[in-house]
Amino acid sequence: MAVLENHLIDLPFMEVKTELFASGPLTMQINKVAVVGAGTMGSSITVAFISQGIPVLLKDVDQTQIDKGLANIERLLKSRVLKGLSQQDADAQRLLVDATTDYTRFSEVDFVIEAVSENIDIKRQIFQSLDEHCNVDAIFGSNTSSLSITQIGSFTRRADKVVGMHFFNPAHLMKLVEVIPGLDTSAETVATALELGQTLGKLAVRVEECASFLVNRLLGRYMNESLWCLLEGNATIEEIDKAACDLAMPIGPLALRDMNGADIGLAVAKFNFQEYGERFRPAPILEEMVTRKLLGQKTMGGFYAYDSETRKRSGANPEMSLALDTVRKSSPGHADASKKIEFKGERLFLPMINEAFMSLQERICAPEDLDPALCAGLGMRIGPLALAGKIGLPECLKMMEEHFETYGERFRPAPLLKRYVWGNRTSIS
Ligand SMILES: NC(=O)c1ccc[n+]([C@@H]2O[C@H](COP(=O)([O-])OP(=O)(O)OC[C@H]3O[C@@H](n4cnc5c(N)ncnc54)[C@H](O)[C@@H]3O)[C@@H](O)[C@H]2O)c1
Q: What is the pLDDT of residues 334-383, one digit of tens each?
């Protein structure tokens, strides 16, 4: 770490060599970027930039936070060296990071990515300061997961130059960036953000502003359904995860929930429920898990148990039976055997497919972008629309209607899906 810090002190931001710059045909020339927030996302977004030769001015509130961010960047670079990056290239990339705790050098940057804590008051303060210190032409991208890009733009006098740039964790590896215009974002800003995303080697997809944007909105429906399947006794933890992997996913939804934490999952599920209503109602088992501190890997126990030494998964967690019993007793309808439809893995994806059709109906993204975005963002082998085509749209609708009869609102078929079936369409294009 000391080496990294010394380089930063020795190498003023303006003197960074520029031969390594990516030279994509950007609508607007981006020579320097700033990343505000050196946490989980800010540090991996920084690595995404420096690995393309783009210098980064990294800002956080104090030296302690900066040091944490730089240590994380160092760790990510080391892991890249282990995977084949030459030490020389890693050293060159490290030199492209300059860190600061103030805005004095922000007049030098063309594009800012904001990745600070998800709090509207903090974002307001940041965007007001950026507006004050940056060049009038500079564009501001926010990595927010849930806040309104339009509202964030309103904190500045340049709402036309504020855009959502939603990276996925870890940002240096994940292949998707969602580019989200607010109501006042200009077409040129959107084009520049899309091109910048491509320069980072990512699939950059324009997504209209909606709660959770595209990929996390669809993911939310699928994650929640996996919990309902478990709670309603349709399948075991292992059966659910296996079915999801067999059909499309690189990792099962319950194993993924354990990785991210039930507490984070609950906050996201509540947000989606508040924004979209009944079809997103969180399965109550999540709240019970949070109460019991069955948060997943961070408490060494969630859906699965983990070996305290190796941290490896050791099988389904027996404590989950108690948690499930508690919720089922408090609301017996959840385990009403007469309501069961025999479990098929497709059930996990029906709500996601439905949400995909709803998103198309709302014109949240171009139809041809939807599956590639889901595949790049979640590592799916087949996107929800292609999966619907594979199941067969009439069969999909039939299953949706059966599940709607039995389980209610979260399976109410999307009007656009019905129209596709009525119109005898066999695929979505
Ligand atoms: N973690 C994820 O998986 C993920 C994925 C996509 C988007 N996001 C979004 O990215 C943003 C950052 O998330 P994170 O997980 O990296 O959070 P984090 O808590 O790891 O990091 C936030 C950083 O912001 C810094 N910060 C707070 N106030 C600041 C200020 N006034 N000036 C400069 N820095 C400040 C904090 O010190 C901290 O280092 C959030 O908006 C989040 O919703 C997170």
A: 766 557 889 999 999 999 999 999 999 999 999 999 999 999 999 999 99
- Please report, for residues 112, 237, 285, 289, 341, the alpha-carbon distance to residue 263 in angstroms, rounded to integers and kept in the order given: 30, 19, 12, 8, 30
For 127-232, list the strands marked E by DSSP: 139-142, 162-167, 176-181, 203-206
Amino acid type, 199 = T
Residue 98 has phi, psi (to 5 degrees) of: -125, 135
Count CA atoms within 13 Å of residue 92 on its CB side: 14
CA 83/CA 80 separation, integer angstroms: 5
pTM over 0.85? The answer is: yes
d(CA 226, CA 169) in angstroms, rounded, equals: 22
Mutate to test the pocket of ligand 1, among 67, 106, 145, 219 (most ligand atoms within 8 A of CB): 145
CA gap 309, 177 in Å, rounded: 36
Ligand 1 within 6 A of CB of 118: yes
Taken in order of first residue, the domains within the chain and their CATH numbers are 2-206 (3.40.50.720), 215-422 (1.10.1040.50)
CB of 247 within 6 A of ligand 1: the answer is no
**57 Cβ inside 6 Å of ligand 1:** no
Is 223's C-beta closer than 6 angstroms to any atom of ligand 1? Answer: no
Closest CA to 218 of 348, 122, 409: 348
Distance (Å, whole) CA 111 – CA 130: 11
